[in-house]
Amino acid sequence: MASAPTTEPLFRDDAYMPSCEAVVTDVTADGGVVLDRTVFYAAGGGQPGDAGRIELSDGTMLAVPTAVYGPDRASIVHQVAETTSVPSPGDRVVAHLDWDRRYRHMRMHTALHLLTAVLAYPVTGGQIGADESRLDFDIPDGGLDKDAVTEALNALIAGDHSVTSEWITDAELEANPGLVKTMSVKPPMGAGRVRLVRIGEEVDLQPCGGTHVLKTGEIGRVVVSKIEKKGKQNRRVRLQWADS
Ligand SMILES: [Zn+2]
């Protein structure tokens, strides 16, 4: 029996690649396309899967509304909108991101890291979007001032801190549970090593498998649009772009 196909996640080392050449390794029962390598982020950790197109060797463009992990998380499946001209294993294709949408996700995602630095409380949930994102915090008392949070966040953004990554082993992470801020999203463990994302020297450090900008200044100004009470100890903080 052939081993299950794996996909090299190019976005992990270079989140700024908008396209890549690849070889089709599998086509799922419902027409999803698995590639040997991809720039498409697969939905996970509160970040949506990327959208874009797969260009076949004859120039045909297949619309890809999203990308998801295969059942083993080793492969990434590019879901296709219509399955009339799906390629075959062995075909060479080019994967193109909807870069505008992805870059917004990268900026929002990095802004949420900064939000956890401003609000140093456990995170219980979250969702990233191209226009609005949110994080839920376990905060015993209310009294959060959304203008003050907006101001602190924009100060960190304007600080133009570097965003870098480093790797530790699963065992090192288990020995330092304080690194995990997000209780609802398990860090991407199981492969023997976990990526930590660091902002500045000491602004933020946490395990994360998502896509980020390289400098916080790229995020641009954001605004805390709403702070909602969700349950006794839960506060939902919503972020939007300041210029939209
Ligand atoms: Zn992240």
Folded structure, characterized:
The structure is a single chain. The protein is of the alpha+beta class and 244 residues long. It has 2 domains: 8-97, Beta Barrel (Elongation Factor Tu (Ef-tu), domain 3); 102-241, Threonyl-trna Synthetase, Chain A, domain 2 (Threonyl-tRNA Synthetase, Chain A, domain 2, 2-Layer Sandwich), CATH 3.30.980. It is built from 4 helices and 16 strands. It has helices at residues 10-13, 99-118, 146-158, 170-175; strands at 8-9, 19-27, 33-35, 37-38, 52-55, 61-64, 66-69, 76-79, 92-97, 123-127, 132-138, 163-169, 193-199, 204-207, 222-229, 234-241. The strands form 4 sheets. The chain has a 7-stranded antiparallel β-sheet. The chain has a 4-stranded antiparallel β-sheet with strand order 10-11-16-15, with helices on one face. The longest helix is centred in the middle third of the chain and has 20 residues, at 99-118. The N and C termini lie far apart (53 Å). 32% of the residues are buried. The model has no long low-confidence stretch (mean pLDDT 91). The structure holds zinc ion. Zinc ion binds next to helix 2. Residues 109, 113, 197, 208, 210, 212 line the site of zinc ion.
